[in-house]
## 1
Amino acid sequence: MNKKLAAALSGGAVLVLALSGCSDDSSDNQVNDWAKKVCDQVKPQLQKIANANAAIQQQTADNSKPADVQRTDSAAFQQISQAYKALGAAVDSAGAPPVDDGETTQKEAVKELNASSAAYAELQKKVDALNTKDQAKFADGLKGIADELNKISTSGDEALKKLQSGKVGEAMAKQPGCQKPKASVAPSTEPSKAPEKSASPSASPSKKS
């Protein structure tokens, strides 16, 4: 019953830092320093998101109990919400990137990250409010949440795309902290090991030029 939710997550729950890794040999020390400052703080947050996505994917069996699914999804959405908030704080504290319109780009990206944090917090509330005693109603509720998740992942990402373009995007792509992580540990409510094929925390797979 949780399969559509897992599919929505893997389809693009997190656009931020879906970097291509493509760059030329040109270097700008100021831009690289900015990218390192952001990516050093980003790495643990991307890991949290990957782990949360993997936890939801674990609860996709048709015989999963509604209460278990609810508990897992609630913890995962809370974790993703907190991670987005921390990502926004990381971009905010780094200051404006030293490029044209850097301040505007930074502010818009922070705004989007904070909005995503709030959206996932709202999804957590909706999951918590689902009726776990009626499996049919619970499944319908999950379908509605998956639909909302798809909307979150496909809208409001222009500022993040802009942040990841040009010299800033190239510099961030070089930083280990901004690379897509593999899920390792599920949220605290899910002690079992996350599967290797976890939901991706990026909107598109990385490509190397």
## 2
Amino acid sequence: MPTHRHAISVEATQRELRLCGFALLNHYLTMHQVIAANVDLPPIEALILIATTTGNIQRALLTGSLPQALRGSQPLPPELVVPISRRAIARVTGLPTETVRRHVDAMVRRGTLLSTSKGVLAPSRLTEGWAAGAVLSLLDSHAACTDQLLALQAIAPQAPRSAGAKRG
């Protein structure tokens, strides 16, 4: 199966730096607004939730062999969900460890996160009514940002290559 790739043009990005930055920052703000509209958390806790969720499922999704039955909205089996430590959350978010610890503890007390002996887990929210609409809104924002960057020639499509082709 061919994969579609895009190349980044350093020259066009430098030429259109303000407009590229504006498109990317607007996309970032839209992502924050979509998430904030559906998960009632202060921004710092939304960031912690995103880092926790991503850390919990990263191993399962990076394998590239996630069975079709697990690609939808059903929760992953517990053996595929990896707890993330407070220190790892601090590292990926850039927040001080003590700040992460304090917020994670508050989120655990409220039931937003679950604590285990190996770290914290974010409960799956994919079956909640808002999840599919939020993902569609995020994809729409991403597509709009990509369209803007294509129009600025900061990124350009490359010819499709077969999935088995070597990356170089």
